[in-house]
Amino acid sequence: MIKGIEIILFLLLASSDAFPQDIDKTYVCRNGQISFISDAPLELIKASNNKLAGVLNANDRSFSFRVPIKDFEGFNSSLQRVHFNEDYLETELFPYSTFKGKIIEETDLSVPGEYKIRAKGKFSIHGVEIDRIVRCDLIINNKHINVSATFTVFIADHNISVPSILNQKIAKEIKVDVKFTFIPSEQQADN
Amino acid sequence: MKKLISIMIVLLTFFWFALPAQDLDQILGGIDPESTPNFTYGIFKGTTIINGQSVEIPGHNDLRFIVSHRFGAVNTGLYNFFGLDQGTTRLGFEYGIKNYLSLSIGRSTYEKTYDGGIKVKVLRQQTGIKNIPLTMTIYCAGFAETTKWEDPERDNLFSSRLSYAAQVLLARKFTRNLSLQISPSYVHINLVPLLSDQNNILSVGFGGRYKLTPKFSINGEYYYLLPGETANDYANSLSFGVDIETGGHVFQLHFTNSQFMFAPGYIARTEGKWVQGDIFIGFNIYRNFSLGRKS
């Protein structure tokens, strides 16, 4: 009888490789940096946010990110920030921008090194979700994964309308920079 | 031993089934608590609703130049081109020293009145860590008319020229589009023509706006004079208008029965009667300059 149970136990342990690794291989980031630049002929607007939060499952390489729009700071005036939240991003209706998907390359994220990967998923801002592939640079250490990426958001893709009178002041393509560090989720729990 | 093993099996199967089901978004929700307050922005577009002050103040280091104009009464007819031949103007500046404190200065054509005021945002409507349902701003201002003395021979005092206003402005943005404000107001006029006239005048203002598009809203404003001599002699100020916003500018166009653009004027000295067509077309134009550019 004991033998039988031991066999079951062994089988369970062997087959449930998801169990111990799932905990090990979930990475989180809480205070990621995200910034954007709108470089229009008549005005340069910059803003940044350090409230980017993300989760990565290193097993199946799936990820999910979230940025609260209201926490973008910078801009050329406080009035501009109000307009950003009120008129363009409509933050009360769409408080977060999200990116959710999977890494295309079958990189083993437990092996230290530098990687260039593509993150594919659903990118949502201003309530409009589109499919995006974002190129990222990963630097994997023993414990951490440093991620940096640059991509462009076309405001027309996300139904953000700018009055024609401001065409010269607000760029149609917004350059976005992202930089953050993933740490294993257990460590996060310890903090 | 047997017991231990069966407990382990139960635990293992539990984790085995429970863990993979854990959603990334669930974890995300756990590590991303609401850590900053959710301030309500843009209760009104302008620092005035129409004639009266709104709870809004210029942002930190923002300078606003305001040109306000009220044409003559519409019922003066074609001869005065429905009032457009006449008019009074106020030029003003407002500056945001902090994001809760601003100063303003201005000069109005009417009785060559200079004004200086201070606005303090005491409460900000917000959700999140704290739940504050409305924004409260206090407005205090002094006003000095500078017309020539009627009788220079008399012993004239500068204090006779002065009047004051204090308002507690309470506003709430109910939806993205609808904001309402209630403004208990106190006006003190140092020198009044008759002994029976009130020096201290109390009034309650009601104002609101409804946004039809992000850049366009309709506004209304009413100041009710509490019963007294002033309420008998003068009219309550009632105004309707629109706000049009284009980046650094706000244009306010309106119809009002009050030709004055400063508190003791529109609260205590409104003479126009809507029913008699005694109304004025007017506009306020705001231009915003950001002085403290962040690099």
How do you describe this structure in short?
The complex is a heterodimer of chains A (191) and B (295). Chain A has 191 residues and is α+β, with helices and mostly antiparallel strands.
Structural features, described:
The complex is a heterodimer of chains A (191) and B (295). With 191 residues, chain A is α+β, with helices and mostly antiparallel strands. Chain A has a single domain, classed as Lipid/polyisoprenoid-binding, YceI-like (Lipocalin). Helices cover 20% and strands 49% of the residues of chain A. Chain A is built from 4 helices and 9 strands. Chain A has helices at residues 2-15, 18-24, 78-88, 185-190; strands at residues 26-39, 44-57, 62-68, 73-74, 96-103, 113-125, 128-140, 145-154, 173-184. In chain A, strands 1-2-3-5-6-7-8-9 form an 8-stranded antiparallel beta barrel. Mean pLDDT of chain A is 86; it is low at 16-22. Chain B has 295 residues and is mainly β. Chain B has one domain: Beta Barrel (Porin), CATH 2.40.160. Chain B is built from 4 helices and 14 strands. In chain B, the strands form 2 sheets. A 12-stranded antiparallel barrel of chain B has the order 2-3-4-5-7-8-9-10-11-12-13-14. In chain B, strands 1-6 form a two-stranded antiparallel ribbon. The termini of chain B are far apart. The model of chain B has no long low-confidence stretch (mean pLDDT 88). Chains A and B meet through helix 1, helix 2, strand 1, strand 2 and strand 3 of A and helix 1, helix 2 and strand 1 of B.
Give the SSE layout.
The complex is a heterodimer of chains A (191) and B (295).
Chain A: H1 2-15, H2 18-24, E1 26-39, E2 44-57, E3 62-68, E4 73-74, H3 78-88, E5 96-103, E6 113-125, E7 128-140, E8 145-154, E9 173-184, H4 185-190
Antiparallel strand pairs in A: 1-2, 1-9, 2-3, 2-4, 3-5, 5-6, 6-7, 7-8, 8-9
Chain B: H1 2-18, H2 24-31, E1 38-39, E2 62-73, E3 87-98, E4 101-108, E5 113-123, E6 126-127, E7 135-145, E8 162-173, E9 178-189, E10 200-213, E11 216-225, H3 229-233, E12 237-246, E13 249-256, H4 263-268, E14 280-290
Antiparallel strand pairs in B: 1-6, 2-3, 2-14, 3-4, 4-5, 5-7, 7-8, 8-9, 9-10, 10-11, 11-12, 12-13, 13-14
